[in-house]
Amino acid sequence: MKKTLIKTLKTFLTSLFLICLSVMPTVATTLPANIMETIKAELPNANIRFDGLISLPDGTIYLPVLPSNPKRNAKGKVLSTVPSNKKLSQKPDVVLFDSNFALLKVIKTKDGKVTVPSPKDIPFVIKTGLFPQDMLVPPGLVIPDDLQIMMGDLKIATTSSRVNDIFNNPVQKPKGMQETKFIPVPYMAGKTLLITTLDSKYISVIPSDSTVPKFTLKLENLPKFVQPVCNDDYILVAAAGKTYIDVADVKQEVLAKKIDLSYQPSEIILSPDKTKAFVAVSNDQSIFLIDLKTMSLVEKIKIKGYPKNISLSPDGKTIVYQDKNTGDIYTLALDNMYLNKYVFNASNVSKLLLKDNNVYILSRTQNELQIVDTEIKDLIYKQTVGEKPVDMTLIGNKLYILCASNELDIFNLEDFSFEKAIKFTEKGFSKKIVNVPDSNLFLITNVSDKKYFVYDTEKNTVLQSVNTPVYINDLQLINKKLK
User: pTM of the entire structure?
Assistant: First the structure.
């Protein structure tokens, strides 16, 4: 009888709550603005995740409880706490706001169980609320039976769930590989590298002062891309053959969300302000727009052709890409009209960049930098570069062009002049340029030799060469230490 009553109440309250949400301007995962202001004022270092979960640097976690009967004209002030008369900055177990919105602290029992405060300490008005229905709770969380109604249709992840497997893997270290500690160059200290290979589901997570992984992340298949976002608090991951993007929460060490595109994602670029991601897919004439604040799919932008080599202009207003089937190059205006314009046709392109009215094209087989004017839609300049150009980056008015033949060519955009060709003594096949934020450095990877090296653009020289345990296919840089 008791179970039937609980189930009936749960169904009724969930339905009622969802009806309320449908007429409210605020969605379940967005905390009210005045509540967020209060939290940030009392707990300035709080991190509010896209699904509403709140975490603090010391490991404290709060679960938000959305009210079934929110009070109008509330100011977002704390009404009561457990223990009583505590400030939010003192991190009480239970916090009730004047709108009936509430926070429950995640606690550990003496036997190590992860749970929430005892039901007897939680006011009835909170018990009638619901947790955000797409929230991912901490691994292993157990909710007391008397609070099951608050769950609604929320799925509780446990420590054995697949969503947590990405962080629960032993270090994948080749036999005989010995860790070597070293002093990294300035601006590289305290950073972390995410390295993928062509033949492994694992992402090697390597501190910038070490030659071996501290731990590894395991995907369901070979990685298509790995992209740190939101001040490196999250990692967006796409695996081959999968139609979704996984969102890994670095702080909570869980796979926090899946963003399903219904098509296989292949490439990703970020807006200059890092609030949006544009994702190309391999089997549809579309580019998908993701809001990184909410980790949600905002829009599917229909385009001409099947996109590859996507790139964003420095002002963030235009995307340039190539149709993988025809070789046609297009621009896409990122405004309400999404004007899609044909620019040029090129073959064997390894990289595209757009600046002002010019598209810069690397032709891998012709060993050329080609410059096309988007207004007249024709070639206006071409420059011979080193053999097999594979990547380039724009720093100021200079293009740094990386060639697989271990050569870095520097091209000046102000007067279209070739400045210098720098030959590296390292062997192998150069692959990618990775910019080091807030510095004059970038990293250069080598796909056929287990190393990367640090390059100084002011001195035009290699500062440091670092060995790795694996052959690098892709490398991403996180501006903090993990674990």
Answer: 0.84
